[in-house]
Amino acid sequence: MLNKTLVPQSVAREIQAMIQAGQLKAGEKIPSQREFSQRFGISRASLREALLTLETLGLLKTEAGRGTYVAAIDATAGQAGHMAPWRYSESHSVFDVFQTRILLEGEIARLSAGRLSQTQLEKMEKATKTMEDCWANQDLLANVEADLAFHGTIVSACSNTMLKALYQTVRDQVTETQRQPIPITDPERMRQSIAEHRRIIAALKANDGALARVEMESHIRNTARCAGLQP
């Protein structure tokens, strides 16, 4: 049985496949939450989480008073060209989350240097290649999942258990910042992001904590800039 985290992701993947296959067309209103939840055999809460994920990725768009529609894709960029509203605005701004990521993940990368096993380094390399391949196929969900796996592997090797715990407390917000810029990410920025991942891996392989921190901070700043921010 799927856990409560995997259920929305599994359903989001199915809906993304329906969009890619043309079963749900650009500009078309998606079925009601009641119909969709019955079709997939899940709760409305899990369905809403799946729909929010797809909206953040730019595959769906909700219009007040009208409902949720399949977003039109920019044929040139391959993306929807707009970002969804920041879903955590009542607690923290997206700027604050990016700024916190720079501080937290930069230090985590520094402390993880020299602690990653060969298996973990290979996992990060595989995740980066998966990001590249899935972007080419416009499998946006798998692209972001691979990105999350990359960053999560570094966190798992951190020597400071309190920093690891702090990361877990903000993981939902961090995850959202990794999804948020996707609709306005052009192919060149994705190529740069993948290259940044490979530089982080190289620094970690070399056991160079100072460089790993610099590369991670630069990577997160560049992602923030893609979202129109200057943290």
UniProtKB/TrEMBL annotation:
Transmembrane segments: none
Name used for this protein in its record: GntR family transcriptional repressor for pyruvate dehydrogenase complex
Record-annotated HTH gntR-type domain positions: 5-73
Keywords: DNA-binding, Pyruvate, Transcription, Transcription regulation
Pfam families named among the record's database cross-references: FCD, GntR
Single annotated GO MF: DNA-binding transcription factor activity
Gene3D superfamilies in the record: GntR ligand-binding domain-like, Winged helix-like DNA-binding domain superfamily/Winged helix DNA-binding domain
